[in-house]
């Protein structure tokens, strides 16, 4: 027996997180908002994660447990999206946990503003659960609602992470009707962020930290950089540029500038030479397209045209001088 008419469906992909899973699930089950289903996607775990999921499923009829061979985070989320019943959906990573009013605050905010997505601030938390800092939203305090398209302006601030991650948000399920996470790629949240927000008519904001993003050494994002990781991030930037170009969005130049900054910000010490040549070609392709025309930006553009590694080296020298 499961929750017959869940308002919210919570999707939690699970893969080898036995150390953190109890805390995550318990934080969901004690939510002040009760009408939800919790969909646990066991993505081929080889530790005790499946047993932990089974234990909770037996104790609470709001829990649905689905097991599949290991396919990765995106595939697990997509499996969840194919098997939910709520009008709204949210994603919680299985090594993270949420505050008691997480669902209620996001739901009330979304309903009050008739929005398609509601977003909250979050805590950076250590593995023991100690709160380290608060990550605030980029949008100014006086803004409570934006159109999905207008949120693109805040994808290019220093701390754009709250905008693009999957997990500090409550979504209307309907905006995923034609959208799924890109499987087999790193940066899956960023790949889907633009089409999600482009689909959303209204986005509303909760100025409270309600989600705990646990900083752990074994997480995907803290793993070492590989050529695959660089290539996936490059593809994400390229798709973002093409998306803005296709939709004639004013953020096109900002997306190009962000891409070029990423290219010149890479540590090229251990990168394959053929890939360096690929990135050099990409930089030259977008030479002259920039959001800002201040002298430093123009100089950087010309230096990158000559050699992207030169800009990277100059950055390192500049940091060294400032430290002195």
TrEMBL record:
It holds the Pfam family Glycos_transf_2. Residues 9-179 form the Glycosyltransferase 2-like domain. GO terms for molecular function: glycosyltransferase activity. InterPro entries: Glyco_trans_2-like, Nucleotide-diphossugar_trans. Keywords: Glycosyltransferase, Transferase. It comes from the Bacteria. This is Glycosyltransferase.
